[in-house]
Amino acid sequence: MAVTARAGGARSVPGSLGHRTVSAAVAEALRQRILSGALAPGFQLRQDALAEEFGISRIPIREALLQLEAGGLVKIVPHRGAVVSGLSVEEIEDIFQLRVSLEPQLLILSARHLTPDDVSELRALRDEYSAALKAGQVENWGELNRRFHLGLLRHAGRPRSLAIVAALLQDCDRPTRLQLSVTGDVARADMEHTTILDLCEAGEVVAAANLLRIHVEHAGRSLVEIYRKSATGG
Question: Which of 75, 124, 150, 210 could form a disulfide linkage to 85, CB 3.0–4.6 angstroms apart?
Fold first, then answer.
C-alpha cells in the first residue's frame, strides 16, 4: 500500500509502507514539507482536507498530527486545530538583531587567531554545506550553517557571548532552512560563506566582519518578509 499526496506542491510518501504505519508515513510526509518550508509557520493543517488528500480516514491523520506535535513541528490550537509551529515575526526580528550585533564583533576577535588547521576544517565544513545546498538536503542546512558560523567565532574569547550566539543559531535552524528553501538563496549563502572565510584567511578581518553582518541582515530581512506574507496569506 502506498500513500500519495495529490494537492499542488505536496510531496508524496515514497515507495511501499512496509512495516511503517499509515500515520507514521503521513507524519513523515508532513514533516518533510514543514522542514522544507512548503508548509510555513502558522499554516493550518485541516484533518478533513489531509484525509481527502492522502485517501485515508481522519484517525491516522490525527495520530500523525500528534506525532508532529510531540516533535515540536505542530501546535494543537483551540478552535483552530493543528497549525505549523514557528517563531513570531517579532521573535525573528529580535534573534537576527542580536546576531547582527554580536557575530561581526566576535569575528573580529576570533579571525586573527584562526589556525591553518581551523581554516582547513572550516573549508571542509563549507564544502559539506555547499554539497548539501546543491543536493537539496534541506534537513542538513540549519545544522551545517550553525557549525560554520560557530567555527568562525570559536577563538573570540567571549564564552558568554558565544553561548548566546549558539542559542540564537539553534533557534535559527528551521528558519534558516525555510529562508533558503523559499527564497532560493542557496548560491548567495554558499558564496558569502566562501568569501567570509577567504577574507579571514587573507587577514582582511574588518571586511570579513562587514560581509558577515550583511549576510545575517539579509537572511533576517528575507525571513521577516516570508513570515509576514504567511500571516497575511500573501
Answer: 75
How many Å apart are CA 141 and CA 174, to the nearest integer? 9
Contact between 219 and 96 (Cβ < 8 Å): yes
One domain, residues 121 and 53 = no
Q: Is residue 183 part of a domain?
A: yes
Q: Cα–Cα distance between 163 and 39 in angstroms, integer?
A: 30
Q: Are 53 and 6 in contact (CB under 8 A)?
A: yes
Residue 79 burial class via C-beta count within 10 angstroms: exposed 0-12, middle 13-18, buried 19 and up: exposed
Q: Domain check: are 67 and 96 in the same one? A: no
Q: What is the pLDDT of residues 154-203, one digit of tens each?
A: 999 999 999 999 999 988 887 877 777 777 778 899 999 999 999 999 99
Structural domain containing residue 36? 22-84
Average pLDDT over the chain, rounded to whole?
86
